[in-house]
C-alpha cells in the first residue's frame, strides 16, 4: 500500500486509536460498524419537518419534485464523498476531506494559506450542522406548547424551547460521554420511536381515503409563477435550503475514523441512508400535500403533520404525532450534535482551530466541543424562527459542499493524491460530475439563498451566516500562531 508522509495507512486503518494526517493521535476509537453509523445518520429524513410548509408556500405541489431532485443531488455528491472517505480513512467526513486535500505537504512556514481553504470548508460544515440543535429545540418547544395546555398557560414557547434545549443537549452529552457507540444505541431506540409512527401517519391517508390526488395535480405551481430570472433565483435558493435537508445524509461519512472497516462500512452506511431519504422526503411531502392541499398547509405551516394525523387517525393520532415528532427531533439533534462536535475536533487536530477543541475524554468523545456547541445553540434559540436559522445555516452548507466537491476534483487531478489507494471508487469520470455540482453550489446556490433571504426581508439571516463564517478567519490565524509557537517550543526542547 502506498504511504504518505511516512504513515502506514493499512496499519492506521486497523488501529483502535486513529492517527491524524500529521501523525498526531486524534483519540477517536474505531468502535462502530455501518449499521451503527446508519442508526445515527438515519435521523436526516426528519430534516424535512421545518421545511414542509415553507416549500409548499413557495412552490405548491412542485415542492415534491424539488425534494426528489435534491436527494438525487445527494447521490451524485455522496459518490464522490464515499470515495474520499475510503481514500482518507482517518478523516472525519467533509471537514476532514477538505482539510487533507487543501494543505501544503511538508509546509514549514507559519501561515499555510492552502490550509485556510480546507479549514474554512470544515468551519462552514460545522455551521451547517450546528444550528440543527437550535432549530429542533424550538420545534420541540412549539409542540410541547400544543400538547400540554397547562404548560402553554404558564410558559411561553421560547421558555419551553430553552428548557427543552438545556435538557436535550445536557442529556445527549451524558449519553455520548462513553463514545459514539452509546449514541448509536440511542439512535436505534429513537429511530424506532420516530419512524414507525412516521410511516403510519405518512401511509394511513392512502388507506383511509383522505389522500386526494387532485390536491396535487391541480396546484403544481403558483398561479402567478413566471419563468424569469427572479423565479430562477428563488428556485436556486430553495434548492440551497432543500439540500441542507435532503443531501445531509453525507453525515454517515463523518464517522470515518470510528468505523471498524471504513472501506466497507462508509459506502454501506451512506447509500442505505440515501435510499431511506429518497423514499421519506418524497412520500412525506406528497402525503401532506395530498391530504391538506396547498391552502391546508398554509393554515399549518409549522406543524402540517398534525392535521394529517388528525385527518387519518383522529384525536389520538394527533397526540401520537406530537410524541413521535418530539422523539424524531431528539434523534436529529443527536445526529447534528455528534457531527458538529467531530467537525470541531477534526479542525483542531489539523491545526485549523485552537488545540483545546481537539481534546477528548478517555472514551474518545470531544466533550468540550459538545459543551461549547450546546451553549452556542442555547443562544441561537433566541432567534425564535426555525426558517430564519435554517436560511443562515444553509449558507454554510452550500460553501462546505462546494469546496468539498472541488477537493474531490483536486484529489483526482493531483498526482500525489491520485495515487492513494481507494477501496471504494465512484464511476469513471466522476471528477467532471463533482465539478459540475461544485459549481452548482458555488456560486449558483450561494447567490440563490442570499437572494431568497433578501426578498423574504431576512437580511438578518444572511448577516448571521456571513458573520459566523467570517469569524473563522481570525480564529484560524490565532490557531496558526498557536501551532507555530508550539513547534518552536518542541524544537527547542529537542
UniProtKB/TrEMBL annotation:
Protein keywords: Cell membrane, Membrane, Transmembrane, Transmembrane helix
Subcellular location: Cell membrane
Pfam families the record matches: AA_permease_2 (PF13520)
Primary localization class, coarse: membrane
Topological category with respect to the lipid bilayer: Multi-pass membrane protein
Transmembrane segments: 123-146, 158-177, 184-207, 227-249, 269-298, 318-339, 360-381, 387-409, 430-452, 458-478
UniProt feature coiled coil, ranges: none
GO cellular component, one term: plasma membrane
Presence of the UniProt keyword Translocase in the record: no
Keyword Nucleotide-binding appears in the UniProt entry: no
InterPro entries named in the record: AA/rel_permease1, APC_superfamily
GO molecular-function terms, A-Z: transmembrane transporter activity
PANTHER family: AMINO ACID TRANSPORTER-RELATED, INNER MEMBRANE TRANSPORT PROTEIN YBAT
Protein name (Swiss-Prot/TrEMBL): Amino acid transporter
Organism of derivation: Methanolobus tindarius DSM 2278
